[in-house]
Structures are given as structure tokens and as C-alpha cells.
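User: Okay, second chain of the day. Same drill as before: sequence in, C-alpha cells out.
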Amino acid sequence: MELSLPLSRRSLLATGTCALAVAACAPISRTSSELAVYKTPTCGCCTAWVDYMRSAGFEARITELPSLRSTRSTQGVPEALASCHTALIGGYVLEGHVPAEDVRRLLAERPNAVGLAVPAMPLGSPGMETPDGRREPYETLLILEGGGTRVFARHA
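Assistant: Same drill. C-alpha cells below.
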């Protein structure tokens, strides 16, 4: 025996609204690989970092802007940590030449933080490789709520 009940517009709308509310409350995927990258049109090292991240298995969507100051500010990145590009992934911000392994660790551990930063543009960091292989030691910083930082990883 088949029972068929007609749905009113109000019932259909309520059902759709509930479905959207459930979807909105679903947890963010912890294995997100989609990067939203913001860079200026003339930056070549930013393109090199995006290529590096893509080769590491991340998907990147690039938006070119004349300045990143407002993007960094909106995302909670202090100007002292500014670099040449800003990216968003899994609810976090990435500022500068952050290595893929640091991003994977961030997404796995899910600390209560704004994101990661590699300030300045250290030689040898992803996207800042040199033809002679020179490398500067650098740190990846965890950006804490309120703008403070702590060392997340060290790279030689």
C-alpha cells in the first residue's frame, strides 16, 4: 500500500531550510586540500609557491589583487608577519612561503589559532628556491588569536 501526502509550499520550504541548516552546521573537512590564494599580479615567487603546493597535492584558486593589506587585516594577520601572498584553507590563513608539511600538520592537529606565517621571504623556502641551492634557516609561526605567535616548525 503506497501512501502519498502532498507537500504544501510551506512544508517544502521548511524542509529545505532544515536541510540547509544541517549542512551549515556540518564540521569542516579536516582533509581539505583547497587553497584560496591572494597575490599581487607581478609576484613570481607567489606563483612558484602555488606550483609547489599543487605538486604537493593541494588545489589552488588564485585571486590577484593590487594590495593584500586589507585581506591580511580581515583574516587577522598582523602586518609584522606580512609576506607576499595570503592563502586560506580549512578555516585557517597561511601567510607567505609556508611548507606543505606544515599545512598538513596544521589541518591534522586543528589548533585554536588564526593560521601559519613565514614572514619575509627566506631563501630556500617553498617558492624561494635559488639556482645554487642556498637556504636560510627559518621558522613557521603559528598565529594566535589576538596576533601573538609561537614557533610551529623550524626549517634549516
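The chain has a mean pLDDT of 84.

User: Thanks, on to the next one.
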